[in-house]
């Protein structure tokens, strides 16, 4: 893991997080001039679903996925999406879009009284299956990433794709332990979606 205590000039090059593996995606745009980047959106993804450790997610985000490799890929053929970051089950961190730019991860969405969450959020994909659990290494990587991002952007909210697009999306799902994540991130309750944190003794 990198050292988030390093000066920002060593951790960041513009909106690129230096410790991450960089793989540029063409699927991004310019943020609105007035955008306040204060939301982290967590997703889950695996390609094919439930298969881990391959390069297919990286290929999807860079428009290089071979749609003929697996029957499932035909269902998403032509999809052009991206996230800012992808955290593998090993804890390895990949980055595809500068955090200063608008990645295509949220779709139609609304949260904290604002719509179009792509405009002012940073999207983080976790390698996993919707509803399945995640690895300790991923929580640790998220903590590292969150600390570095929060030093550069005014992050005040952390939510799942399911919370910004309810009824349309259900990831990362019940397998994400929000209490454990809160312990790693050391953020106050109000940063998280209502109802995801288990109260002591509950």
Please describe the structure with a list of short key phrases separated by commas or semicolons.
single chain, 202 residues, Lysozyme-like
Any overview of this molecule?
The protein has helices spanning 8-11, 56-61, 71-75, 136-152, 161-164, 178-185, and strands at 12-13, 16-17, 21-22, 28-29, 39-45, 85-87, 93-95, 102-103, 110-111, 114-115, 121-127, 157-160. With 202 residues, it is α/β, with parallel strands linked by helices. It has one domain: Lysozyme-like, CATH 3.40.80.10. The strands form four sheets. The chain has a six-stranded mixed sheet. The chain is globular, with a radius of gyration of 16 Å.
Question: Layout of helices and strands, plus pairs?
Answer:
Layout: H1 8-11, E1 12-13, E2 16-17, E3 21-22, E4 28-29, E5 39-45, H2 56-61, H3 71-75, E6 85-87, E7 93-95, E8 102-103, E9 110-111, E10 114-115, E11 121-127, H4 136-152, E12 157-160, H5 161-164, H6 178-185
Helix pairs in contact: 4-6
């Amino acid at each position: 893991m990198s050292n988030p205590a390093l000066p920002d000039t060593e951790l960041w090059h513009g909106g690129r997080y230096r410790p991450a593996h960089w793989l540029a995606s063409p699927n991004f745009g310019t943020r609105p001039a007035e955008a306040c980047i204060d939301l982290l959106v967590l997703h889950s993804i695996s390609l094919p679903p439930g298969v881990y450790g391959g390069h297919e997610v990286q290929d999807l985000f860079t428009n290089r996925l071979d749609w003929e490799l697996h029957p499932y890929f035909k269902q998403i053929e032509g999809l052009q999406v991206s996230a800012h970051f992808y955290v593998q089950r090993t804890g390895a961190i990949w980055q595809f879009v500068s955090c200063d730019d608008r990645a295509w991860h949220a779709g139609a969405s609304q949260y904290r009284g604002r719509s179009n969450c792509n405009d002012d959020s940073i999207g983080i994909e976790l390698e996993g299956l919707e509803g399945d659990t995640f690895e300790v290494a991923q929580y640790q990587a998220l903590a590292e990433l969150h600390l570095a991002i929060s030093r550069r952007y005014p992050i005040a909210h952390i939510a799942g794709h399911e919370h910004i697009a309810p009824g349309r999306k259900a990831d990362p799902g019940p397998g994400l332990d929000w209490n454990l994540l809160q312990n790693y991130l050391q953020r106050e309750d109000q940063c998280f979606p209502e109802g995801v944190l288990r109260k002591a003794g509950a």
